[in-house]
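Wed. Picked up where I left off yesterday with MerR family transcriptional regulator. The coffee machine is broken again, so keeping this brief.
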Amino acid sequence: MKTNQKLFTSGEFAFLCGVKKQTLFHYDDIGLLTPEYKNNKGYRYYSVQQAEIFSVIEMLKEIGMSLTEIKEFFHSQTLEQTITLLTEKEKVMDQKIKKMQHTQQMIKNKKQHIKEALDLNYDCLTIEQKAPEYYIRSENILDCSDKEFTKTIMQFIKYTKQKHLDTGYPIGGIIQQEQIENGDYLKYAYTYIRVDKSAVKDPFIREAGKYVTGYHKGRYVTINETYNKIKNYLNEVNYHISGDSFEEYIIDGASTSEENNYVTKIMIKVEEK
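Structure written out below (tokens, as returned):
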């Protein structure tokens, strides 16, 4: 071989590209990236320009193209086709970036809720003025059959995922005022997730007002203990329940395997007697 061009051995080129030599050998075997030169012993040598080709291959792989598709593109491309392909893939990357940013926000919110839960005083009950909050809410599930319940919840979850409405806020459930007064704490009338005000056209709005807030720690089947504690507390401070209960799973099975460490936040609209 007579050339003034500096060539890299397969080991050097693999190091330059950050891959194993076997990757280069595979690309050569399938005709995707042929070495600049092979000697009579079969040793492969690559040019520095081929490092750029390798980078493009890796980029196209990362945005979802198969090796076969990449090979076909390289063997039939024109400048116009390259521009068209890169424009299409740029749009794909924009969508992926938005999805990753959405996932990142979910992670941040979930982490923040768990960290805040670790610092809570679970024995403390408070009454405080709350601003309106905006929810996406399911259809009524209070008196539906098991089959209807499953269908409604699945439709709700599917809708929130399709619309990218889940941003890491805790999933919640609504227990109606009449249920609370009758001691019926284990059946939700609706399930919901909190959303930004502009996320949906007609969100369900939790009214502004005074809410008693408490936290139930432990298995959900014992949540009646916390509701009874809240009722006793309201009698002591001369308040009465004037609206529904909004529950949120602050710590659940997605955060810990220990049921005794589950935490449910309870917020009930109240008024002075």
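Quick read: The first strand starts at residue 7 and ends at 9.
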